[in-house]
C-alpha cells in the first residue's frame, strides 16, 4: 500500500522506493551445472537435499514478496567468447574475459529496500558456501544509482 499524507488540504502519495541489485553467483567451472551447490565435491546427498529445500524456500519468499525480478543460469565459461575492439578492428577470443578460478555461473536481479536486505538475501543462497555471491546496485541511467 502506498502511504498518503495530507499537507495544506492536499493529499500527497509517496511511492516507497526500492533499489535493484544484481546478485552474481560465482562458481568454479570444473563442476559446471545448475544449481551449482548441487554439484560440489564432498557434499553428501542429505546436505544437497537440505540446501535444495533452503533454496526453494528462498525463491518462494522473494517471489512472493515481489523482490525477485529475474534469475538466469549461464552456460559453461568454456562456451564464452570475448570481443575486443582496438583501433576499429574487432578481435574475438574463445573463453571468458578473465582467467580466474571462479566464473559467473548466473545471476538474480532483485528489487528490495536496502543494501542490507540485498546482502541478507545473497547470504541465503547455498552457492555462497562454495563460491561467492556478489551484490551490486543496478544503475538507473536517468540519474546514477537507482537509489
TrEMBL record:
Record-annotated YCII-related domain positions: 55-141
Pfam families on file: YCII
InterPro entries membership: Dimeric_a/b-barrel, YCII
SUPFAM superfamilies assigned to the protein according to its UniProt record, in alphabetical order: Dimeric alpha+beta barrel
Family, similarity comment: Belongs to the YciI family.
Xref: PANTHER family: BLL7171 PROTEIN, BLL7171 PROTEIN-RELATED
Protein's recorded name: YciI family protein
Organism, scientific name: Saccharopolyspora taberi
Amino acid at each position: 500500500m502506498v502511504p498518503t499524507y495530507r499537507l495544506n488540504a492536499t493529499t500527497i502519495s509517496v511511492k516507497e522506493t526500492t533499489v535493484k541489485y544484481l546478485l552474481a553467483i560465482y562458481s568454479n567451472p570444473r563442476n559446471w551445472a545448475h544449481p551449482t551447490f548441487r554439484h560440489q565435491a564432498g557434499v553428501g546427498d542429505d546436505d544437497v537435499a537440505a540446501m535444495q529445500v533452503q533454496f526453494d524456500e528462498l525463491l518462494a519468499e522473494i517471489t512472493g514478496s515481489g523482490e525477485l525480478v529475474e534469475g538466469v543460469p549461464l552456460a559453461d565459461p568454456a562456451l564464452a567468447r570475448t570481443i575486443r575492439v582496438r583501433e576499429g578492428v574487432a578481435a574475438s577470443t574463445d573463453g571468458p574475459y578473465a582467467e580466474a578460478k571462479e566464473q559467473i555461473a548466473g545471476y538474480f536481479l532483485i528489487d528490495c529496500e536496502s543494501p542490507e536486505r540485498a546482502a541478507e538475501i545473497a547470504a541465503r543462497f547455498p552457492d555462497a558456501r562454495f563460491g561467492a555471491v556478489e551484490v551490486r546496485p543496478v544503475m538507473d541511467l536517468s540519474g546514477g544509482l537507482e537509489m
